[in-house]
Amino acid sequence: MSVLATAAKATAGAVAAGYLMDKQFGFSHEWPILRGGMVARKKFQQCEATQDCSIYNRFEEQVLARPYEVALVFEGVSHTWKDMELVSSKIAHWLLSKGIQPGDRVALLMNNSAMFMHVFLAVLKIAGVTAFINNQISGPILIHSLKVADAKMLIFDYELLPTVQESVQEIKELGYSMYTITPKEQVLGHHFVMSTTPTQQQQQHSTEGQAMPSVVLPDFFGFIDYKDLSSKTIPREYRKHIKMDDPAALIYTSGTTGFPKAAIMDHGRCTLAPRTFGTIAGIKNGDHVYITLPLYHAAGAMIGVAQSWATGSTIVLARKFSVKRFWRDCVDYNVTHIQYIGELCRYLLNAPPGPLDRVHNVKVAFGNGLRPDIWKKFQDRFGVQTIFEYYAMSEGPGALLNLSRNGKGLGAVGFRGPLIRRMQPGLRIVRADIDSEQLIRDPKTGFCIECSNGDIGELLALADNKTYNSRYTGYFNQPKVSKAKLVQNVFQKGDQWMRTGDLLYKDSKGFYYFADRAGDTYRWKSENVSTTEIEATLGRLDEVAGCTVYGVQVQGQDGRAGMATLVLKDGIVSRVVVGVSEKSGEEKVEYHVDEHKLAQFIHKLGEHSAKYMPGYAIPRFIRISEQELETTGTFKNRKVDLRKEGFDLDKVRDRMYWWTPEGRYLPFGVAENRMIVEGRARL
Prior knowledge:
By secondary structure, the protein is of the alpha/beta class. It folds into three domains: 30-193 and 218-415, Rossmann fold (3-Layer(aba) Sandwich), CATH 3.40.50; 425-516, Luciferase, Domain 3 (Luciferase, domain 3, Roll), CATH 2.30.38; 521-677, ANL, C-terminal domain (GMP Synthetase, Chain A, domain 3). Helix 5 links the parallel strand 3 (105-109) and strand 4 (129-132). The protein is globular. It starts with a helix and ends in a 6-residue tail after the last helix. Residues 59-414 form the AMP-dependent synthetase/ligase domain.
């Protein structure tokens, strides 16, 4: 055999061996994830070595590199990097004039806007800490959030004035000064319009030289008069003292249960996460990233927007998510990457097919919570080639990452091949008791028991604070709640891990899958039922626009019976606008039900459930909601009230159905309720 033939044979053998190794261990799948982590780690180490830790400096690097390129597009207006630097500098000087010092906290109650980013940058610029307050909360929950933040100042959008005004006395008692970011002339104009009749307005505008009538404004807040202040940048020396473990922002949990908790987003995490995620998603200078998520959450602010400070990409920011505007914006602004969370992708799929579905240039969707039942449907319909799904915790260490191309890893929230497991060993799935929510320990050793492939258990993250990857930040000003998340002596004496409260499982290939929240999984007929899996199964029905599953108490029964609240697409339950409220300006809506189509769907639902679910997992009660399911700002369904109402006919006004002993769904009313309460009906 010739030397050339021998070499060719050896090459072919090496390629074949490499293919088999990759098929077995998934090196090609984990390489983009490893690369993203290494790029971020290198930047982290450089910043730490040169005392250059403030994440504001990452923004400033882009200002110096590309001052006149577009950094942000909001509602059709483009803002260059230099524009944002100048405006944020003016606001920074205003903050300093009001006595805000390094380390002070400033609470921000605002909607998505360019000004949101300007204020955030201004606070970072002077080494302060921004507390992002959820703009959907009010009353006691708002006061709780402000009390936890213990900030000096509250800055708010004037359109959120009613929320602030409702609790103004309590906010004052917490020691807050209050300012609106909305320009004074805009506020005065708003009050003029609201306090005069159309005739008076016409008379006012037709009288040349006549002064605007005096408008009496509430006196508990001031205006941020920054426009005439200096735009001179705040030097880096002002931020030289900042360390990687210093807080950059406080970002609150969604509050699906209980009051929100303030997770500490430190400068180290804000350095690592945006660069890691941006690199893995392939985002670079010249790309346009569409963000419709609320900026008061970590996903929108840190993963979505702050990645541009690492990559130099352009952010296309929406005030809020809109199904109607989504693909139009993607086309108009040449969007290349979109961020999703929760059910956002399902909302897009539920919309009727349109001419813009595949004419956009979106190549990557990144986010968390894309459900397996719509993953491929979303890609097929909208032509999005790559899905970058991740699992991360605002308050804890570790993350699971899955860059899925060509259908590989479909439905997985993360992938951990042998190299990733070796470099980052601090994530384990352990056995847990679903009812008591306690970890199961080996009676001989007293240590926790790691789950085998395919077994569902609770995900734990190493939190011993020995390395940055295992550093546990917890919640700001809430030591008891922070401590409650920790567990010791898990795998060896003296170790410490954080309980995520999430149930996951992994397969033999290294893919990790989300099963459920520990509190959402319930036990029925001596079996554990995952609400996430049932939601995914019901979600495969074309008629279902929205779905949430939960367990409800049944008198005389052990465990909890499954109940599903469904929102059906137009055609079965149709939403018809019949007018507009003169008082609030909101649409008046009536819901029309096609009884024949509803009956057909209920029959189909019963057959589908019996075919694709184990008997114990079939929801015993179905509730047909005529309104959208209530969600958090990140599209997580709120189940607390639904769970409390259960199948109580005094509380539920929606139509209900129950799973009869004959194995089908029939209407549920007073007679059926009496049969269950008296124990005469078998569920």
